[in-house]
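Handout, section 4.2: multi-component inputs.
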Amino acid sequence: MKNWLSTLKTLIWKDLLQEWRSKDMLTAMLAFAILSIFIFNYAMELDPRQRAELAPGILWVVITFSGTLGLNRSFVAEQEQGSFDALVMAVPGLGSIWLAKQISNFLMMLVLIVIVLPVYSLLYNQNLFVPGLLLTLILGAWSFSAAGTLLASMTAQTRMRDLLLPVLLFPILMPVNMAVVKAGMGIMSGAALASYQVWLTVLLVYGIIMTTISLMVFDYVILE
Amino acid sequence: MLSWNKKISFLAIFSGVLILLAFGLVLFYAPVEQNMGLVQKVFYFHVAAAWLGMLGFLVAAVCAVLYLRKPNLTLDAVAASSVEIGLLFTAIANFTGMIWARPVWNTWWTWDPRLTTMTIMAFTYIAYFLLRRGIDDPAKKARFGSIYLIIGFATVPLTFFSARLLRTIHPTIFGSAGTGEMAMTPAMYQTMGFSIFAFSVLFAVFLIVRSRLRLNQQWLEEQEALEQEEEFGEVING
Amino acid sequence: MQIELQGISKSYGRLAVLKNCDLQLESGQLLCLLGNNGAGKTTLLRIVSGLLSPDKGKLLVDDIELSLKSPEWRRKCALVAHKTFLYQNLSGLENLRFFSKLYQHDLSEKELRDRLAEAGLARAGDKQVRSFSRGMQQRLTIARALLSNPDVVILDEPFTGLDKDGSALLMRMLADLKRGGAMVLMTSHDPQAALAVTDGFVRLSRGVLSEVVWVDGRGWSEIEPLLYDVSTPAFEEQSDAGETSRSKPVLGPTGRLRTQETGTIGSITTPSSDCLRPACGSGGRGVTEE
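Output:
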């Protein structure tokens, strides 16, 4: 257990250090996210009252679209110089390779959320720092990156790579999209917890299912 | 003993007869529904096609799990063929559904959970073929395909559940009552049961023929690779 | 320690890449694997390192069976392949530190720097690998692979990209490894250069592994004929290339004969995998009735 944790920590540290050096992923994700907030403004001519209702939906679209950009990059380092093989030979339980990548990607998503939320709040003069919304987004981000990390580990090994990931990911992600948006709308309109609780459960169940499946099948992604 | 080819031919003819019989039952045996009129008759094929859509994906998911446990390219060929046929019947179900929905719901498309789920599922399986096209190595193609089928299939119930939490106007035929309930007579049930049976036999025929075609295709590709290898050997050593 | 691979076979569809390969290795031994492009060398090395599962065959470690796919086995091995396995955005030292932690060896800063110095990278250690030349990357690749003090070292063309100093360095490292009791399996396109360190040669030809030809202080000119044994079909093909340029029958996988334009029709005996071995004596492939 102690060894397992230290392996996990080492793997995550490597991802974060790499990202810190290049900042490829985060720069692209943030730039795209903020640009899309601007685009939404002009595309939808949001009036203040509609805005409150639509905010969770817009936020989630912005977060998932820019998140996909990041996911596409997340296995580049492993693919570029074949270090997948070196990891496979060094790490006893292959699931931890997936879990480490999932945690790094999840952390990336959190950074994205932490930056996008205040920007959105500032631009639309609407306070989005509501604990319930934050919780929803965090749960959603875990599910999003769980499905995304597994799929990205596969698409990274195909010919079409970046092109393929969104096409594979979004149909799978449908329940998450519905749940985040519905729960978010409930929270922003000040409804009672009971009215949107079920959506939080959906998110939780999805996250658990996707994490379990990924841990079970990841061996088959990297071992031939 | 009959040859493999002959058996399939017989099964194909048998399924053709069954389908014709089903047609007959729908046209002449099943009564005309009072509220909806003649257009309700499309429902017998609609339900059968939707069932086969689900069945195709179920068969594929089972093959995918089996493949990961013990790799065998035949299983992969069956899985891929099953998805293909499932997609075809999903399209038929959606199409017949639209024909029915236009006069009954007064719209071609609605964001009904079953409709939404089926369509999203169809997108998942189209993505499955895109994934396969991006991979050259047959074993890797089969492995990745299987993984995607498993996660795709695992999310279907959640998609359906979520879509259902949003409003529904689709008639519920079995079980709990909903809006737009349909009262079915025994003749209607019999017709529907027969139609589902006839379509299921058709599905089996399609699945066998398509899987064999796939395996033959694979065999030919391998043959080419082998011959190339042979020539390559000649060049290197000769 | 002693390992034994028995009956390793691997095919992609019906294309057999490895046919029933046997190989034995003992501590302190270094074997050099020879073979043409496409002979299956890389496939064999990947199977031995546990990255690719064979269709058939087993591994015995000190006469006890161990799964080639087991993590315990993978962690005993080290692989230097065509790709460097290095993280380009990390420095040389960080790469080494990362892998030493993964192997739970936790070498100290000083030990890691010593490893870098051994590879002749003492001054470049803090630079990102991205800025390294091909040769420097290869040196780091080798240093990284040896970090875990592996029992089995597998090297796929390790001399690629190395300059004269680098090659000398690698030679020294290989000698050290042998002395330290590791077993080494490497491929090389330059057997004469490998002669200085290797204990023996094996040759892989179209999926069939030859017997080991031990060096025993002999020169390459003595070893070569043994490896390319006159009886091996590959050698026959090589020799008759010079004689005549007659049309060559192309053997289909089913054993049916297709001929090119000149239309020499003849029967052909399919070279069974057994006959491809040097021990098989005369005549693997016979074209008759000209």
